[in-house]
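Question thread 4412

I'm putting together a teaching handout and wanted feedback from people who do this every day. The idea is simple: show students a protein as raw sequence, then show them the structure tokens that encode its fold, then repeat with a second protein so they can compare. Below is the first pair exactly as I plan to print it.
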Amino acid sequence: LQIMDTPCCSNIYNMEGYSYVDESVLCAYRDGVDTCAFDSGGPLMKK
């Protein structure tokens, strides 16, 4: 997983209509991979 910086994460969430991203939020991603439906906000785990 890659960790996304807060300004980039905030921009993406703002495009989706959300505006609550601040320094307490951690955004992570992996190209070509998505969470399951209704899984946003779930725990972030790494093997």
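The second pair follows. I'd like the answer to focus on this one:
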Amino acid sequence: MPSPIAHSLAGTATWAAMDRRRRIALFVLAVLVANLPDLDFLPGLLVGDANRFHHAFSHSLGALVVVSLAAAGVARLLGANVRAALSISVVAYASHLLLDMLAVDTRAPYGIPALWPLSNAYFLSPVSFFLDVRRSADPSRFWISLFSNHNLHAVLREVVILGGILLGILLARRSCKSTEPAIRGSD
């Protein structure tokens, strides 16, 4: 499955594509939500098996709905733009699910339970664009196991693919901005 770097780039691309006003709060929201499903490692670390809960319900459309509605609720309480928070949360969370489905998965159950709670089936694309991130399930070795040549190669591939997508979005936004007519009275 992709690294937090890949998910952060996907969150940044979501924000760049969706937030014309470049609000920093929405950037933080997009990157946070794009990484949120992988917090399922934390309970596993606490019980001595980092992978025990990974790729469970947090990697599903059911969780996407709950998290996105929660983000919209928080936005409403803060007096922020509810529609922007909701839409960015939906796309950022969905980006995590998509990236995980497009990656090599070497641990059973393979894939993600994308349609939970409607189905317990796991889904994985037959075509992999991203490598797996190799890690130890042993909490005492979990963090150090992340630093390997294989994982470096995986991250470089993520940066090339997702960095290219982000760059394309930024260039497209810039070219659209330069072709927009000037608004009268804005000078």
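Top answer:
Good format. For the second protein you could add a caption like this: The helical segments are 4-18, 24-35, 41-47, 61-78, 82-101, 139-145, 149-179. DSSP finds seven helices and no strands in the chain.
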